[in-house]
């Protein structure tokens, strides 16, 4: 594994953050800035060999920097076979999100650190 580089692509309200190992995409976050008060993470995936190395938290942190300060960030958590929903919930909780409706797996976080260098601790 090489050093991971990150790329941010923004087209209007849509934000895509990529984690790249050379020319290979190893992580991706798709988000949208809905209003000045609300944004959403719609998709987050880190390839298995790159998990537990800070790639996911870096993708989130870079997206938060694109969001308006103090906006609410919504996340719909969807489990994949290799990662149980409980692990995903734990990850988002460590990144400062809170569960507001478990029946539909919605999580929200106030974006208080959008323009700082802080990262969520794992």
Task: Describe this protein's structure.
The structure is a single chain. This protein is α+β, with helices and mostly antiparallel strands and 122 residues long. The chain has a single domain, classed as Gcn5-related N-acetyltransferase (GNAT) (Aminopeptidase), CATH 3.40.630.30. It is built from two helices and seven strands. The chain has helices at residues 55-66, 85-94, and strands spanning 4-11, 14-21, 24-33, 38-46, 72-76, 98-101, 106-110. It has a seven-stranded mixed β-sheet, covered by helices on one side. Strand 3 and strand 4 (38-46) form a beta hairpin. The longest helix is centred in the middle third of the chain and has 12 residues, at 55-66. The protein is globular. The protein starts with a strand and ends in a 12-residue tail after the last strand. Residues 114-122 have low confidence and may be disordered.
């Amino acid at each position: 594994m090489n050093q991971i580089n990150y790329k941010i692509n923004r087209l209007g309200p849509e934000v895509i953050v990529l984690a790249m190992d050379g020319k290979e995409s190893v992580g991706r976050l798709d988000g949208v800035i809905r209003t000045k008060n609300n944004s959403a993470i719609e998709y987050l995936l880190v390839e298995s060999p790159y998990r537990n190395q800070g790639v996911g938290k870096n993708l989130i942190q870079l997206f938060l920097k694109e969001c308006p300060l103090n906006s609410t960030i919504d996340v719909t958590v969807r489990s994949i076979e290799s990662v149980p929903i409980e692990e995903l919930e734990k990850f988002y909780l460590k990144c400062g999100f809170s569960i507001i409706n478990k029946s539909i797996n919605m999580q929200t976080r106030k974006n208080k650190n959008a323009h700082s260098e802080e990262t969520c601790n794992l």
